Structure to design on (298 residues):
């Protein structure tokens, strides 16, 4: 154990204990679980261990984020009252990052305000593949605090290289370009990304890159899949262009509603994801990535 972690614990909520236990084991530090009580009217009461070490690593994946944000705003100051001098948020999935500008007059820039709330509560925020598009760095999202943005793209690249012989990795939009290139690097794989036009939550057009996929294995890759419409639109076109196989690899498997079925109907064979968001498609763990970053974070 490093000296920085010698007086630390992982603090987690009861619905994330499996991931939290793996993280605590990787760091060789104790795991404590937050006890939650929900009142009949929906309010929540939290109970933390009565004495906490100086460094608390609070794990909270922010898929289905709304109630969790309130819990975090209670848990962080509560931990400080109980002995923590430094509270780090580990959010393998960081929500509210996509609304990073006002696309129409009057729209609230969620990224800025959720980031400010987190900066108020935590000393550091560590996450994986946050959707940073117009904002350069995670430090800009959590002003005056340490932000650490890790990428699962190399891990997904290694997984893809093991599963598929000589695939081309395709990203559906400009934003995915960074991840597909990172995944392809080191494995000698070809990577390309397209462009996307989003008209609504479930209304997306994808313009694929000019790459010959006839008879080739293709892996579609993105940071996050939610409704699956983006990847399904890309997969349908790849099928029309004669791709030999189409698989999907994403960091964050939100996959709401019938998203997985939509992908298969569009011609996708296999779907793989990291465990940054728990899902049946999880194949690649980000725990070692987070543990390494936490050992380095000072
Ligand atoms: C946004 O640009 C992201 O990178 C994803 O492409 C997007 O969130 C996917 O959403 P959906 O699965 O609902 O199309």
């Amino acid at each position: 154990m490093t000296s920085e972690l010698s007086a630390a614990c992982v603090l987690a909520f009861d619905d994330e204990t499996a991931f939290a236990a793996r993280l605590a084991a990787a760091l060789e530090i104790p795991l404590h679980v937050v006890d939650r009580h929900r009142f009949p009217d929906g309010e929540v009461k939290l109970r933390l261990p009565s004495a906490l070490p100086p460094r608390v690593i609070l794990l909270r994946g922010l898929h289905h984020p709304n109630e969790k944000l309130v819990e975090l705003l209670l848990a962080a100051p509560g931990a400080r009252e109980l002995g923590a001098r430094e509270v780090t948020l580990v959010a393998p999935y960081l929500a509210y990052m996509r609304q990073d500008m006002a696309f129409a007059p009057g729209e609230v820039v969620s990224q800025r305000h959720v980031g400010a709330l987190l900066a108020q509560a935590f000393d550091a925020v560590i996450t994986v593949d946050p959707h940073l598009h117009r904002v350069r760095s995670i430090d800009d999202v959590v002003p005056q605090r340490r932000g650490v943005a890790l990428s699962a793209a190399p891990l997904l690249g290694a997984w893809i290289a093991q599963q598929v012989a000589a695939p081309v990795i395709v990203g559906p939009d400009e934003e995915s370009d960074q991840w597909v290139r990172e995944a392809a690097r080191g494995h000698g794989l070809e990577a390309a990304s397209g462009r996307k036009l989003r008209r609504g939550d479930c209304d997306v057009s994808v313009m694929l890159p000019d790459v010959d996929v006839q008879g080739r294995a293709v892996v579609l890759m993105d940071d996050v899949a939610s409704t699956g419409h983006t990847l399904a639109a890309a997969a349908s076109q790849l099928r029309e262009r004669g791709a030999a196989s189409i698989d999907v690899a994403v960091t964050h498997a939100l996959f709401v509603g019938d998203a997985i079925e939509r992908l298969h109907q569009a011609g996708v064979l296999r779907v793989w994801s990291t465990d940054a968001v728990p899902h049946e498609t999880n194949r690649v763990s980000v725990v070692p990535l987070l543990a390494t970053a936490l050992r380095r974070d000072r």
Summary: DSSP finds nine helices and 15 strands in the chain. The chain has a mean pLDDT of 96.
